[in-house]
Amino acid sequence: MSTQRVIVVMGVAGTGKTTVGRMLAEALGVPYAEGDAFHPAANVAKMSAGTPLDDADRWPWLDAIGAWIRNRGTGRGAVVSASALKRAYRDRLRAVTPRTVFVHLTGERPLIEERMAARKGHFMPTTLLDSQFATLEPLQEDEPGVVVDVSGSPQEITERALAALRGLRTPENQHPEN
């Protein structure tokens, strides 16, 4: 699998984007960035208060992630975790480099809610899970990416993601071994 790809690990809160993203980056030997680290303080405060972000809140955040991709990820590949819930958000990230692919982590709501509730020290409350699911536009057939179920251990999820990425063909990457 080519490490030239920029992999965006996406999905609603609680799916394991950070854990799986780190593990994917380690397995591929590429840089990793946690998308939450790019949120301005106002976004974090808003989410901490239980208020969902709107598009106006998300555009600068997505642009900051895009700048990181442009500066660090376009030469040798990278992995970044970001909810990227809407097609327009993914299009904005993909505009940075055509080698961007998505790993959409998905699973049953009760499992995701249970994992969110078990997290310690995260600003995203479980009360925002409904808004996350309401906003989510799943990957479409014409978007380069794979859908990976989040049941099982982080290692199992990461292995499923790596296997799915190995089989992914994109216009920029027509050979499965790349």
UniProtKB/TrEMBL annotation:
It catalyses: D-gluconate + ATP = 6-phospho-D-gluconate + ADP + H(+). Its EC number is 2.7.1.12. Signal peptide: none annotated. One of its GO terms (molecular function) is gluconokinase activity. Keywords: ATP-binding, Gluconate utilization, Kinase, Nucleotide-binding, Transferase. Pfam families: AAA_33. GO terms for cellular component: cytoplasm. NCBIfam families: therm_gnt_kin. This is Gluconokinase. It comes from Streptomyces xanthophaeus.
